[in-house]
Amino acid sequence: MISSALTKKDRIIVSALKLFSEHGYQDTKIINIAKDAKVGKGTIYEYFEDKKQLFDEAVEITMASSYEYLHQDLDFVDNYTACLKDNIMKEIDIVEENITLFKLFLQITNNPILYNDFKISRILLDLQSKRFVVFKQIVEKGVQAKEFGPVNPELAALSILSSLNAYIIFKYKLHPNFGNMPKIESATIDELLVVIINGIK
Q1: 3-class SS of residue 181
Q2: Of 23, 53, 49, 52, whose CA–CA distance to 36 is shortest?
Q3: Which fold, 69-197?
Q4: Whose CA is closest to 162, among 196, 139, 120?
Q5: What pLDDT, in 10s, does the model give residues 93-150?
Q6: Rounded CA gap, 127 and 124, in Å?
Q7: I want to staple 153 with a disulfide (CB 3.0 to 4.6 A). Which of 37, 139, 178, 196 is the partner?
Q8: How far apart are the two ends of the chain, measured CA to CA in Å?
Q9: Which CATH architecture has domain 8-57?
């Protein structure tokens, strides 16, 4: 149930994300979003020009708030292996706490019309770029501290993110109880990290 403490615009965005993830962009109607958000259909057009603008803004706002951890200062980190694990955990937590967002992300990447849209592709590319920079910096600083071996930070960051993305998709998209499964234990992340780190040390 949507909290009445949210603003009308926030309620619209929450409902839009839920319905887009459940029914897909094409099959989600403005009238259904309005009903779920408990606002009039005309109210949505007070905030958004059309369904496409609502979709774009909902994706942009949600991704920005979900990935706030990307704005971090690595200058005071003294254990880069622990930092790497912490960032991997944050990535997985984002999926576990935002299954709706993850479903929406999968729909975007599997829909050429949405994925090739300029604004959506820019949002996703910007997010991927920020994720890459953070992991690259962790590896760079770990190499400088001699915690990791003399690896290429760019290739290492790409390998880490590729492994992480593949793991998340396999674990969630292919799981029979997708969207309703137990939280991944820290010990499992430790095992994943061993696989990743062994390619760095």
Answers
A1: coil
A2: 23
A3: Tetracycline Repressor; domain 2 (1.10.357)
A4: 196
A5: 887 777 777 777 777 777 777 777 767 778 888 888 989 999 999 999 999 999 888 8
A6: 5
A7: 139
A8: 48
A9: Orthogonal Bundle (1.10)
